[in-house]
Write a structure and sequence with these properties.
By secondary structure, the chain is an alpha+beta fold. The chain folds into two domains: 171 residues, Hypothetical protein, domain 2 (Endonuclease III, domain 1); 131 residues, Nucleoside Triphosphate Pyrophosphohydrolase (Alpha-Beta Complex). Helices cover 41% and strands 14% of the residues. It has 14 helices and eight strands. The chain has a four-stranded mixed β-sheet with strand order 5-1-7-6. Strands 2, 3, 4 and 8 form a four-stranded antiparallel β-sheet that branches. A hairpin with a 2-residue loop joins β6 and β7. The radius of gyration is 25 Å and the shape is elongated.
């Protein structure tokens, strides 16, 4: 599409009046703060990230503080944001920056791309927002906006569509269009996509770029952007069990298992949990615990059922409580450990500090 200087001026005028200038990561645009915010915002809504960003920065105020932290501490601060691989990759990237650059954030596109978990969009966002360099960015909001402006009638995830969309992103920040900062232009485009060019019921009457919009001209703002195939969900039955023992001082300790690399929630902890394939969830759960830990338990009282989704699975998770171990804590010995995994008895009071998966946290709240 051809972008005029007048269109850029209208966009920036709208942004000055309506942009989300109050967002905390826009107050002090250091490379570290921009990077943290962009990783958090991947596949996560702004309103959700708002509750975590300041807390995370308080715990890890700079890249070296993040690098020096234990992974469990990082995951605990991340808990609730989901997609925990992001946190582990961010931790690995912080270590790389601390070790190779003495904590100084890289300033070139090629160097930033070498960081774990960083792709073209995130690298461009850091360079644009923190360093005021002319790098395009394409994320969910600008992708939708550019698809409508171009009247793009092919799925946005395809190679040809991505080429057009990235080309549009580059055109918008070119000096030919505007001498305004790339940070202002990119941020304005993101906010316009988020606040006006919304997925449903776009506010076309309020859009400063309405006269440039091909989808509006064709009366196809509902159909555009064109998505790919919809995900087909599969139902899945699971069960978890609370296993505890009583310490000499009367306090309870609960059995937790840590997920390993390649599993959902890798690096996080959970109560013993397994997929159920039959009508007898209690027996399957007891068999799983025996094979995994060497403990013979009986799932007795059923506590609560949780429903949630992970990738393509819609999961029904039933939770049970096992009979209490009456032996002293020192005498209840785990006879085996999952391959590559870890098992630990954790005092009830310490559960709050443990990085649990989201449903594990909900189970802990039943105590």
């Amino acid at each position: 599409m051809n972008i005029s200087q007048d269109a850029a001026e209208r966009l920036l005028a709208w942004f000055r009046e309506n942009g989300r200038h109050e967002l905390p990561w826009r107050q002090d645009r250091t490379p570290y703060r921009v990077w943290v915010s962009e990783i958090m915002l991947q596949q996560t809504q702004v309103k959700t990230v708002l509750a975590y960003f300041s807390r995370f920065l308080s715990a890890f105020p700079d890249v070296c503080a993040l690098a020096e932290a234990e992974e469990e501490t990082v995951l605990r601060q991340w808990e609730g944001l989901g997609y925990y691989r992001r946190a582990r990759q961010m931790h690995a990237a912080a270590k790389k920056i601390a070790e190779e650059r003495n904590g100084a954030f890289p300033e070139t596109f090629e160097e930033i791309l070498t960081l774990p978990g960083v792709g073209r969009y995130t690298a461009g966002a850091v360079l644009s927002f923190a360093f005021e360099k002319r790098f395009p960015i394409l994320e969910a909001n600008t992708q939708r906006l550019f698809a409508r402006l171009n009247g793009l009638e092919i799925p946005v995830s395809t190679g040809p569509a991505q080429k057009i969309l990235w080309g549009t992103a580059e055109d918008w920040i070119s000096e030919r269009v505007s001498d305004a900062s790339p940070c202002a232009l990119n941020t304005a485009l993101m906010d316009l996509g988020s606040l006006v060019c919304t997925p449903q019921d776009p506010k076309c009457a309020e859009c400063p770029l309405a006269r440039e919009c091909e989808a509006l001209r064709m009366d196809r703002t509902v159909e555009i952007p064109v998505s790919g195939k919809k995900m087909l969900y599969e139902n899945r039955e699971e069960a978890a069990v609370l296993i505890f023992r009583r310490r000499m001082d009367g306090k309870r300790e609960f059995l937790l298992l840590r997920y390993v690399e390649g599993e959902w929630w890798a690096g996080l902890w959970d109560f013993p949990r397994t997929q159920i394939h039959s009508e007898d969830a209690r027996k399957e759960l007891a068999d799983f615990v025996w094979k995994t830990t060497g403990l013979k338990v009986q799932a007795e009282e059923e506590l609560r059922t949780f429903r949630h989704a992970v990738t393509r699975y819609r999961i029904r998770l039933r939770t049970f409580c096992a009979a209490e171990f009456l032996k002293d804590a020192e005498n209840v010995i785990l006879e085996r450990t999952p391959a590559g995994g870890e098992i630990r008895w954790v005092c009830e009071e310490e559960l709050e500090t443990f990085p649990l998966c989201s449903t594990g946290r909900k189970i802990a709240e039943l105590l």
